[in-house]
Amino acid sequence: xxxxxxxxxxxxxxxxxxxxxxxxxxxxxxxxxxxxxxxxxxxxxxxxxxxxxxxxxxxxxxxxxxxxxxxxxxxxxxxxxxxxxxxxxxxxxxxxxxxxxxxxxxxxxxxxxxxxxxxxxxxxxxxxxxxxxxxxxxxxxxxxxxxxxxxxxxxxxxxxxxxxxxxxxxxxxxxxxxxxxxxxxxxxxxxxxxxxxxxxxxxxxxxxxxxxxxxxxxxxxxxxxxxxxxxxxxxxxxxxxxxxxxxxxxxxxxxxxxxxxxxxxxxxxxxxxxxxxxxxxxxxxxxxxxxxxxxxxxxxxxxxxxxxxxxxxxxxxxxxxxxxxxxxxxxxxxxxxxxxxxxxxxxxxxxxxxxxxxxxxxxxxxxxxxxxxx
Length: 374
Fold this sequence. Notes:
Elements: E1 2-5, H1 8-15, E2 23-32, E3 39-40, E4 45-46, E5 53-54, E6 57-59, E7 65-70, H2 72-79, E8 95-99, E9 102-105, H3 116-119, H4 124-137, H5 141-146, H6 148-153, E10 155-156, E11 164-165, E12 169-187, H7 204-212, E13 218-240, H8 241-245, H9 255-270, E14 275-278, E15 281-285, E16 293-298, E17 304-308, H10 311-325, E18 331-334, H11 337-349
Parallel strand pairs: 1-17, 8-18
Antiparallel strand pairs: 2-13, 2-15, 2-16, 3-13, 4-5, 6-7, 7-12, 8-9, 10-11, 12-13, 14-15, 16-17
């Protein structure tokens, strides 16, 4: 294994060639802020029965239990809003949609460029053409002008053009050797409202309603209580250079868009963000592990070269390539309320609702606390 010290401008030339590496990968070891063997809380997912929830825990072949700490969708949600802040905001078009009394950034919405909030807006005419050019010709240039982070984090226009944009940058956090815990709680009111004659409690339904309003004792037995991790908690990030090189048009005509999107991906990948994932899950680097992170480029042969990341160099590279490609124009647009309601009425005539599915790159994954637009 050899080491590459960045110099992005030198190494990215190799990454963009057809015989370049398959991917850039990063592994980062984390631990709860309280220390090793501390209790951390994974995201919860809906169960089969109403009101039921659970952690996503798998038992591996050797008996080790693995628990999902942050899903690929949640991680994307946490990375993408970086591009709303300076100096990163200058790297992408800042598009906001006014919907009623709310103003929403395109960098926060669920399905990115394919989201309903932009499909029913004046921007959709251009976005639809961009999706079709990508789907039919592999040409990513128009979409990169309008919504470049959709090319980095993925999107799927499942409702009209069918265009799928695979994630170029995918990150997941899992813990290994996890023992799930339970917790119970009991609320005791300051006085016995029923005994004092202040509220009624003669029948079951009245008592249930009084309890729901905080007038009676409320037990909460055997609820999810987090996990203790006995082995390791690991964040794994993959930047697909194969996927990046597939962005067209092919040849020199497509080189500027590929370099631009690579710059955005490297900025998001190398940015050192806090891991305040949800209540009870504040993670930090595992300082007891040396090193606490590993970066590599992985060739198609399996050969791995160690990489030393440099966020400042990645930002400089991204700024240069953004200037060369030309960042799209920022816009403030209005949600098309009339068009949205007409579409709903038309859908009702057809029999209503389509089957819901998860899209590649969608932010609609519900995993407890999945970050912005979660």
